[in-house]
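Supplementary notes (optional reading)

For those who missed the lab, this is the record we used. Protein: VOC family protein. Length: 186 residues.
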Amino acid sequence: MTNTEFELGGLCHLALVCQDMQRTVEFYTEVLGMRLAKTVEIPDGGQHFFFDMGGGQFLAFFWFRDAPERAPGVASASALPGVGDIRTAHASMNHVAFKIPADRFEEYKAKLEAKGVVTGPVLNHDDSERGVSMEMNEGTYVRSMYFFDPDGILLEFAAWTRELNEDDVRHPAVDRFGVVPAARPR
């Protein structure tokens, strides 16, 4: 399936806000191994830095001198998935998932932990009633491990375990009240 409206080539960049740009640079370059690709000084005293995630895609951070403090449980997740509540407010960014090779999943988890990064339990997202299991099964479509960056941004290493197909789209969308709206006439 392709986009018939716009020729999109994937994600250009996702822009987040950090509290300490130096600490952010250290984490994303030294812990996650990304290359700092571009730095911008904003005229009002802020900064905007871009990290190369690979595949022509970037993760960007703003630093604003007088930015409001973080608000876990409102603008960011307050816990790791599988550990606690991950709900966030409307229009918030819940997490950033980085695609990793399935055959390096355990190695990458061990690498993060060796660098002092606390990771949550491995979650095998599947087609079960719960939607997740601790063990791989025939319904597993992606394996995930979650962790926080120094600013409390929820990050995920995700490994697809199978290709998605039309059978994977089987739930009707609900409205803002959690109700499936009646079919609308065309």
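If you only remember one thing from this example: Residues 77-168 form a domain with the 2,3-Dihydroxybiphenyl 1,2-Dioxygenase; domain 1 fold (CATH 3.10.180.10).
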